[in-house]
Amino acid sequence: MSATLDAAYASLCGHARETAKLASIAGLLEWDERTKMPPAGGEYRAEQIAYLAGEIHKRQTAPQLGEWLAQLADSSLAADRHSEIGTVIRQLRRQYDKKTRLPQKLVEELSRTAVLGQQMWSEARKADDFSRFQPILEKTLDLKRQEAAALGYEETPYDALLDDYEPEARTSEVRNTLAALRDALTPLVEQIVGSGRRPDGAILKREFPIAAQEAFGQQAAAAIGFDFNAGRLDVTDHPFCGSAGPRDIRLTTRYNQHDFGDAFFSILHEAGHGLYEQGLPTEHFGLPTGETVSLGIHESQSRMWENQVGRSWVFWEFMFPKARQKFLSLGDVPLESFYAAINEVQPSLIRVDADEVTYNLHILIRFELELAMIEDQLQAADLPAAWREKYQHYLSITPPNDADGALQDVHWSAGLFGYFPTYSLGNLYAGQFFEKANADLGDLAGQFRRGEFQPLLDWLRQNIHHHGQRWSAAELAMNITGKPLSHTPWFSQIQHKYSELYGL
Amino acid sequence: MSATLDAAYASLCGHARETAKLASIAGLLEWDERTKMPPAGGEYRAEQIAYLAGEIHKRQTAPQLGEWLAQLADSSLAADRHSEIGTVIRQLRRQYDKKTRLPQKLVEELSRTAVLGQQMWSEARKADDFSRFQPILEKTLDLKRQEAAALGYEETPYDALLDDYEPEARTSEVRNTLAALRDALTPLVEQIVGSGRRPDGAILKREFPIAAQEAFGQQAAAAIGFDFNAGRLDVTDHPFCGSAGPRDIRLTTRYNQHDFGDAFFSILHEAGHGLYEQGLPTEHFGLPTGETVSLGIHESQSRMWENQVGRSWVFWEFMFPKARQKFLSLGDVPLESFYAAINEVQPSLIRVDADEVTYNLHILIRFELELAMIEDQLQAADLPAAWREKYQHYLSITPPNDADGALQDVHWSAGLFGYFPTYSLGNLYAGQFFEKANADLGDLAGQFRRGEFQPLLDWLRQNIHHHGQRWSAAELAMNITGKPLSHTPWFSQIQHKYSELYGL
């Protein structure tokens, strides 16, 4: 009996590792498409990626896999759900159940609609005409509700969708956490705006030669521990962190000669994602024990390196002299002015350009709107007006058009409902983990000031990266900090930092 | 009946096109490995590529494929072997028969030995110690003879191996052609050496900034018609032309700041390969009607653009003013001296650095040696001495060590027997095609002088590229020029050019 179980487990792992080979190959193709591929290569590239996606889907829903899992799931091997073997069985079972619950026809319809949706969104946005997007949005909502019904849920269909990005999270908990965040944040934003202080943002819009930006970005990514022996940095349109294998992690960014911050902070952000990927146990690559937990936890890593580290005073005590060596245009800039400029808070229309403080309000708006749409309490036709109302309410500004309003982001057109809140969850996890790391490691500020980032990285590796998917995001927070996720650690860091900056 | 045949043919084509998706994906992985991949990615990349190779092999030997081919091969559809459908059936049948004739065990042993062989070759070469390579060379020879026996042959086991690179070519014909070439070439080389003339090669070893070399190489590749909308140029260690899909062709080169010719002529050479790939009919991608004929024909394209075009006086009448704009170090160089320098003939030890004239003697030596080894007339132990003897005989120089002698090239260590002669066949095909193109198109020289390369490219597309594998290399030569392949067109071009250059 035990020999049979062992054999089934070995087959299961072998199967998952082979699927990971295909997935990592697809990862390289996607990275290449967005960084190197010549324009005319796009049509065939889509066929190559669709072929791989089909093969991966076949493997992930293979009846053989179901048989192994049926043998293993209730066996002694799976008894300890957080053991190495228990984690592998539990998570592969979870994935298999989700994948096989969706009818093939619905999967294809979702996929087709996502491709079409993005095209129609792109056209509608260019023409600033929401009515051209509305029909496909309605269809997408209908399909996503069907998807949720097929997957099953207890409280709200949004639960089933959220689970794709933040496994085991519940909408009700997310709603409560983000509502508490909103209630704390809106008065702080008002105070900052009301302070009348405005840093000199023009400092960051001077001449910053691209080659120097690239070299400086690489220097910073290497300083925080990104291993360029097992990774790269390239140019793309929309920065991302890609993976082509366990020791092949690819950061991307874009450069603007007249903007220091855009590339620099996106490099730190993507390097944060990359450090998580590089910190996963290589020998478990392709198994749940070697994979990242959730988008929220992934984002907690990128945000922590970008914000808690990269926008801190002490980080720049260390890096600013190096920046001055690289950029002539910073020669006359005092560190105080630079620090104020990279931390400027300014309510604005565009999420991806938002500052550290107001960013979460952009997310809240999207979360509240998509939740209402999925729960059929907001109709697609009413989205533009609802969007404007929320921006006025939370940020005291109203988009002058739908292109910068309800048509701003690609997500909904691609069927990504349940994705947005993970950005804010990431911020909050980052705040909570950082508070604990600071308590555990003593003087983090002093370490950063001396350019010592290894202690923090080691702490993250030991507490988060090394575990793969042994624990859910919520369990990780509880294990590490002894508390469930809440907005308070992040908010108190923000309140402290910005009270000082804006003299509140 | 006909409906059944049509269905079998459609299945056959669909199957081949899917296999091509995997092969083109492997093409991207290999390109990336040699141009972009971070060092630590290598181990997993080998697993990814081995996995794809295994899947491709499974598909190429699938019993289903054998059934379709059995139905089709003797049917009316295949009756005209050079029609579109006839070509697809004939060539896929040919490939299937070859692949299925090799026992799986032998395939695996060949593959393992090739990996090991390259490692041992690399160590032996570094240590300049042939004895460390000899045992694995003996094993490789034994396996290659087994391979030839399994594949079958009429005259010599070398026929079976040659067929992998130059399908349908016969060793006896290649031997005769190359022997005639050798007999014409050796006295010419003696005359050139005896002329006492030496161009000023130092001109090409001045300062050539790498960014300018890259820009100039791209300019030249674009000028001869390489489409950068469907291709790229990147840096690697050993230049090659890779393909990631029908409209995604990737040239590579390496730059040396103090060498103009190394990068420039390798770019033209690889662009020649790339023009062939870009000229194949896109809609046949993955089918034999959309694939290249042989290594010899492939090399005829790269050599023609590199040599007949790129080392001609008239090409540089057009390009030299542009080169002078890019490179300050050419400011005082007359075109005459530049032209003489890029066409310097000098018997030397290293094949890859050899000039246009002596290059074929390097190939002849390797061809004669590997033929003798496969036919068991030369023992591995006697290879170093035989190598020295031949270099003395044909080029009047003797390698001072085996590292630059019998250990010079990677080919044999990787099991590539039958590959070398295709380099010289390529030169001869280039000469024969170029002579005919010149007759068909009138004043090619005048066209080149004005920077007009499109007529030659169109001629190559129409006569060679568009046909895919409808005709074998030998048939192409006969169809296009009305004559079988011979050394005389190439040799008379060379004799004419170098008599002028060296005042013979």
Helix/strand layout:
Two copies of one chain form a homodimer.
Chain A: H1 2-35, H2 42-60, H3 63-73, H4 84-101, H5 104-126, H6 134-151, H7 157-162, H8 171-194, H9 210-223, E1 231-235, E2 241-243, E3 249-253, H10 260-279, H11 295-309, H12 313-326, H13 335-342, H14 359-374, H15 383-395, H16 421-441, H17 444-449, H18 454-463, H19 473-481, H20 488-502
Parallel strand pairs in A: 1-3
Antiparallel strand pairs in A: 2-3
Describe the structure.
- Chain A is an all-alpha fold and 504 residues long.
- Among the domains of chain A are: 1-101; 201-349 and 439-486, Neurolysin, domain 3 (Orthogonal Bundle), CATH 1.10.1370.
- Chain A is 62% helix and 3% strand.
- Chain A contains 20 helices and 3 strands.
- Chain A has helices spanning 2-35, 42-60, 63-73, 84-101, 104-126, 134-151, 157-162, 171-194, 210-223, 260-279, 295-309, 313-326, 335-342, 359-374, 383-395, 421-441, 444-449, 454-463, 473-481, 488-502, and strands spanning 231-235, 241-243, 249-253.
- Chain A has a 3-stranded mixed β-sheet, with helices on both faces.
- In chain A, strand 2 and strand 3 form a beta hairpin.
- In chain A, helix 8 (171-194) runs antiparallel to helix 14 (359-374), helix 10 crosses helix 11 and helix 14 (359-374) packs antiparallel against helix 15 (383-395).
- The first copy, chain A, is globular.
- The mean pLDDT of chain A is 97.
